[in-house]
């Protein structure tokens, strides 16, 4: 798994077009203020080590939120951080379990619709920790 993490003042997205035929039909948009926005990419190798990936991702995301002193996060599937891709079903499952584990720790979690291209705007802060890349 690869994660590109941003400390944002503002994140806005709107679904643009469906990319997976079996994705749920939806038109969705949201404006989320003062959140960590995480672009996540689940790789093929992650299919064999799902529990380890989920645990490490949650640990890293909690560390990041702690450093930023935030309790709000956006998980956005972004299949452009590597040429290796898991199956869509595996990516959905891993992201869903990460979301569930974060919510169990009283973290406000938003997700963008999986299987869609979205248009988005993002205002990333300028500090060093505002842009962090992590490979699990």
From TrEMBL:
What Pfam families does the entry give?
Answer: tRNA-Thr_ED
Q: What InterPro entries does the entry give?
A: DTD-like_sf, Threonyl-tRNA_syn_edit_dom_arc
Domain annotation Threonyl-tRNA synthetase editing: ranges: 1-136
GO MF terms held by the record: ATP binding; threonine-tRNA ligase activity; zinc ion binding
Q: Which domain of life is it from?
A: Archaea
Keywords carried by this UniProt record = Aminoacyl-tRNA synthetase, Ligase
Show the GO cellular component annotation of the record.
cytoplasm
**What's the name of the protein?**
Threonyl-tRNA synthetase editing domain protein
């Amino acid at each position: 798994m690869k994660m590109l993490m941003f400390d944002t003042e503002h994140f806005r997205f709107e679904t643009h077009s469906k990319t997976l035929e079996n994705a749920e039909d939806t038109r969705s948009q949201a404006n989320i203020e003062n959140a960590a926005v995480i672009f996540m990419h689940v790789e093929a190798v992650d299919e064999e080590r799902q529990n380890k990936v989920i645990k490490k991702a949650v640990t890293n995301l909690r560390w990041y939120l702690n450093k930023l002193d935030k309790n709000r996060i956006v998980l956005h599937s972004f299949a452009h951080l590597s040429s290796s891709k898991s199956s869509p079903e595996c990516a959905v499952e891993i992201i869903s379990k990460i979301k569930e584990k974060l919510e169990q720790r009283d973290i406000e979690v938003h997700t963008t619709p999986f299987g869609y291209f979205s248009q988005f705007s993002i205002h990333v802060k300028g500090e060093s920790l505002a842009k962090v890349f992590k490979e699990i």
